[in-house]
Amino acid sequence: MSKSAGPFIQKVVKSFRGDLVLDADALRPEVIRKVSHAKNLVLLPHAGEFKRLSRQSLSIATGKKYAKKWNAIVVLKGPLTAITDGTRVVYIP
Fold first, then answer.
1. Is residue 89 in some structural domain?
2. pLDDT beneath 50, residues of the chain
């Protein structure tokens, strides 16, 4: 993320009160901490982004754990994409 994009993204998500979908450069710990107020939060990390957020390797178990922690729908992108709300998991081949 560029130096100018970071503060901009953080400012936008901090003040936003609706449904929020975050992907790519917005998937950073400092951004996630500011979005707990989102009505519905959807995160779309691939393995590298997930590791940057959670400091853990991507797996269904860790995806479920962090979906609960972040109160979000987590779309774990990969060869077999999995979507979890922390309880249920749906797979997309």
1. yes
2. none
Q: What residues make up the domain containing 81?
A: 29-41+52-93
Q: Which residue in 42, 45, 44, 76 sits closest to 59, CA to CA?
A: 76
pTM for this structure? 0.82
Looking at residue 59, its pLDDT comes to: 93
Residue 67 lies in a domain: yes
On the CB side of 47, CA atoms within 13 Å amount to 6
Domain count within the chain: 1
Q: What's the gap between Cα 48 and its chain centre? A: 12
Six token digits for residue 41: 């939060």
Task: Note the pLDDT tens digit of each residue in 24-45.
Answer: 888 888 888 777 677 889 999 9
16 falls within a domain: no
Answer positive or negative: Cα dihedral of 55, 60, 63, 64. negative
